[in-house]
Write a structure and sequence with these properties.
By secondary structure, the chain is mostly helical. 58% of the residues lie in helices and 0% in strands. The longest helix is centred in the first third of the chain and has 29 residues. Keywords: Membrane, Transmembrane, Transmembrane helix.
């Protein structure tokens, strides 16, 4: 069972850390490309939102980080096994001799 502090770290510190890393990498890239401007939406917001989305999805799958077993978000229907039927076409009159022999043996 995760504590409240652990949940705060997972839901706030991890996404903010990812956003700061994205902003810092954009800041370092600015030295090689002087025309590039830093934007909060692209440099901080995108990594923050993607990490927050990942944390929320994993939180749903693990039932609020209470279990270590991952459950799928969508339950797929179970596949039912189907039996294969073989249809035989019997033509009357071709194997009459065999049928007559079987009937004679039954009557004896």
């Amino acid at each position: 069972m995760p504590t409240t502090l652990a949940k705060v770290c997972i839901f706030l510190v991890l996404p903010i850390g990812a956003g700061i890393l994205g902003l810092y990498s954009a800041y370092l890239k600015q030295f090689s490309e002087p025309d590039r401007k830093l934007t909060i939406e692209a440099d901080f917001g995108l990594p923050f939102m993607l990490t927050l989305l990942l944390v929320v999805v994993v939180g749903f799958q693990t039932n609020g980080y209470n279990t270590s077993k991952v459950n799928p978000l969508i339950r797929w229907p179970k596949v039912k096994r189907t039996r294969k039927f073989i249809h035989k076409h019997v033509v009357k009159g071709q194997d009459d001799d065999d049928e007559k022999d079987a009937e004679l043996k039954k009557n004896e």
